[in-house]
Amino acid sequence: MSSLVSTSHLQLAAFALGTVGWILCTVSMGIVEWRVWHVDNTTIISSGIAWVGIWKVCFISYLHVSPGYEEQFCHKLSGYDSFIPHEIYAAQGLLLIAMCMGLLGLSATVFALRNVYMGITHKTLITRFFLVGGFFYILAGLCVLIPVSWNFYSVTHNQSIAFPPSYYMPSSPAAQEAGAAIPIGIVAVILLLLSGTFSLSYRFPVTANTIMKS
User: pTM for the full model?
Assistant: First the structure.
């Protein structure tokens, strides 16, 4: 058992990194700060800053509230809205897929580590579940990488979004910058890809009393 455990340290690290990466993936999907828009007209967007996420658009306004108070107005973005750019629409789907793939990767890794630390020397079972976990980690990382890099490209090129009048948003910002969701997503990608690499690198020890069942 000691030789079996000693060869799975990287896979234990993969589980830890994958857990953090999966959490960061979930956080980046949930927060609204994907793009930070700076607008010139502060009549409605009082702070001059609006946040464009993949699920909603928010801004601070002092309009229709008591003096000295502020209110955050948010409009939800639906996959059925025709004005949503392709990179946001892709992010909605791919990040949901990444969450599911990451969860499957964590489940497979937990099962394999359980067998390792319980001394169940079943080579085929342990190896396959580490490989499956690594595959899901890498797939999850790629599903996060695509929308993060695509949206970052849109930010750096100051691309516009044709919001309808009911959103009280200009079609083009005076300037925009990447919000917190993008660097969080980048860290998630790195951790998930590392987790996948570590899981796929597993080699069953030849000295263990191996059960060769398939």
Answer: 0.85
